[in-house]
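Sharing a chain and its predicted structure for anyone who wants a worked example. Both blocks are below, sequence first, tokens second.
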Amino acid sequence: MTQKNEGFNEVQLVEAAQNGCIDSFAALYEKYHGPMVALAYSILAGRDRAEDVAQETFAIACRDLPTLKSKDKFAAWLAGICRNLSRQMLRAVRTERNLTPDEPVARVQDSADERSEAIRRAVWNLREAERELIVLRYFDGFSQAQISSVLGISAQAVNGRLVRAKRKIAEYLKRNGLTGAHYESAR
């Protein structure tokens, strides 16, 4: 964040950006670029595509920022743009490749690490909202407070949903015969 914007809270940054302050928009970009990449990745399963979507998300946010009424909901608004763009890209890729809605767009490459492969498959079998949480928390290392801010839900909701998603991962692993001490970390 630039020295010029230090001490500004997020609402102040949004207001300044709405008034044309490029440094304030840059500070918002710096804060939310990583979470938007992670969010897009949770839908697209491809880092390059996720980066592209994150960039487009900020381009649209820059253009449409003057229309944002609830300045305190910037992160959730941004996440909504990112989700919509990710879903559009996913539909386009599926159409281009003639895939059914159930087929994953990006298959995980063969890995020597069977455990990681199994956990990845379990994660990609979760519903989109659950997968977002797992990717943000465990793949990209965001705190529950950061996830709460990005997704616009309470920290308690994040915690509860993470617990349920981890249970589903454990159940998937068990159903697929992948039980044992080394898989219990998914619980």
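Comments welcome. The chain has two domains: 8-107, 109-187.
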